[in-house]
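Moderator note: this is an archived Q&A kept for reference. The question asked for a predicted structure of one protein chain; the sequence and the answer are reproduced below.
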Amino acid sequence: EQVPWLNNDAIFPSSKLKLQGTEIGLGRLALRRYFNVGGKMHIAFSPIDTKIPVDGALGKYLVIDLDKDHGGQDLELSANKFNLSHFADTDFSDVDIFSRIRKFQVFFHEWSRSDKYAYANVRQKSKGTRIELGRVRKNGRRDYITMGSNDYLGLSTHPEVLNSIKNTLDIYGFGSTGSPVTTGLTDLHQELCSKIAYLHQKEDAILFNSGYAANIGIVNGLCGARDLVIADQLVHASLQDALAMSKATQRYFMHNNVEHLEKILKNERKDFAGALVITEGVFSMDGDTPPLDKIFQICRKYNARIMVDQAHCFGVLGETGLGICQKFNLLKEVDIIMGTFSKITGGIGGFVTGSKDLMDWYRHFARSYVFTVSLPPSTVAGVSKALEIFRKEPERVHQLHANIKHFCKGLSDLGYHFSQPHESAVVPVVIGDERKLGQIYQSLLDDGIMVIPIVYPAVALKNCRFRFTIMATHTQSDLDYVLSSLEKAMIKADFKFETETESRKIKRTA
C-alpha cells in the first residue's frame, strides 16, 4: 500500500530518534525504501550528514550495505547532487575519522562512472601533442590530440633536452641524495640559479622541487605574525594553502580589482610591520592577466612588497617570453618573482628570484627548501638545456602566440565570448552545465581529443568548463580539428554559448 507522503526522492530534515528515553539527532535522512511486513510498515532511511557513528550506540541497529536495487547510489550521494567539497568540509563523525571515507566510496562509485569524470586516463608509451591512452575510442584507436598539457613550448621532448638528461644520469647518478643545505646541491643547481637570475634581471635565485613547494616557502619563509599578506582571490591553490599556513594576517582582494586592493592597504597597512601583495601573471583557471602596472604602483604607494607568480606566463607572455613582468617592463622592479619549470620546459620544479639578500634569507628560513630533497641533477640539466633552447629559438614563443590567436579566433566564430583579448596558453571554455559538460567531453574523447573538464569546487557550480591549453607544437590542422569536433559535440549536447550580456552575469570564483 502506497503512503502519500513517501516517494523515492523524499528527504527529511533535522530528524531525531528517541531510543530508550534518549533523544539522538540524526540530521537529514533520505528515504531508501518502504514495505509492509506482517501488517507493519518498515521504512528504511540513510543519513545524509552521517552523524551516526558506525561503531557507536546505534551501530547494532544500522544496515550498512544496501543493494543497488534499493537506490543506494542515486539519492543523497548522487554525482549530480554532490561533489568533492561536501567530503572536504563536512563534519562526518565524532568517533571515526574514516567514516567520511566509507561515505565517499559510495559517491565515487557513481561519479567515476559518470560522463563528467575525467581524471583516470592513463597515458601509454607516447609523448608530444599526440598521445596514446589506455581508453579505446571508436575504430579501436587509442591516439589522442592532447589539449591539456602544460608543455607550452614543446620542449619536454626536444632531443637536446633528452640527451642532456641521459648524459647527466651517467655522471651524477639518479638522485640528488639530500637537501640543498646538506648533500643535494651540485654545480648544475648553481649554474641554473645563475641562468634564472640573469634572465629575470635579478641578483640571485633558488630552486624548489615543485611550484607548490616554492609558493609555500616564499610566503611562510618571509611573512611573520606581525605582517599582512594580501592576495588576489583567484590565486593558485598553492598560494591559498601558503596563506592558510602563514602566521601573518591574510586578506584577499577582488580579482584584478586595484581599487579593492588599495582600500585594504589604506585601511589596514598601518597596523602591520610588513606587507606583501601577491598576484599571478596568468590565472590558471581563467587564463586572464592582471593590471600589473597599477598593482605595482599601489604597492609602492603603501610601502608594500610585491610578489608575482609567473608559473603560467614564463615562456608565454612578453616580447621574448619572460612573462607578465617583462610585458609591463617591471622585471627589475618586482620584488619577488616565482616561476615553475613544468610549463616553460615541460619538466618539474619551481624557483624564486630576487635580491641576493632575499635569496640568502630563503636558503635558511624557507622550510620547503631546507627540509626536502632537492631536484635530481638530471632534471636540473634538462631544465637548463631547455632554457638555452628557449633563448636561442624565439620562434617557439612566436608560434605559440600564433596558435593561441588562431584557436581563440575559432572559438569566437563558434560564439564564445572573451571578456578581454586573450593572450595566454590557458584557454577556458565555460559550459556552465555539468551534465552537458560531460556529454561534450565524451564526444570529444570519441573524436580523439584529450581535454580536462573543470568542475566545482575548483570553479563555481555554474562556471564549469573545459581548460584547453595550447602548445607551440600544435599544428593549425590539429587546432581546426579540435574546433570542428567541439562544434559537433555542442550540437549533439544541444548546447550554445552564452551571449555577451549573459556571460557578464556569471561570477568568476576560485
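Archived answer notes: The first strand starts at residue 11 and ends at 19.
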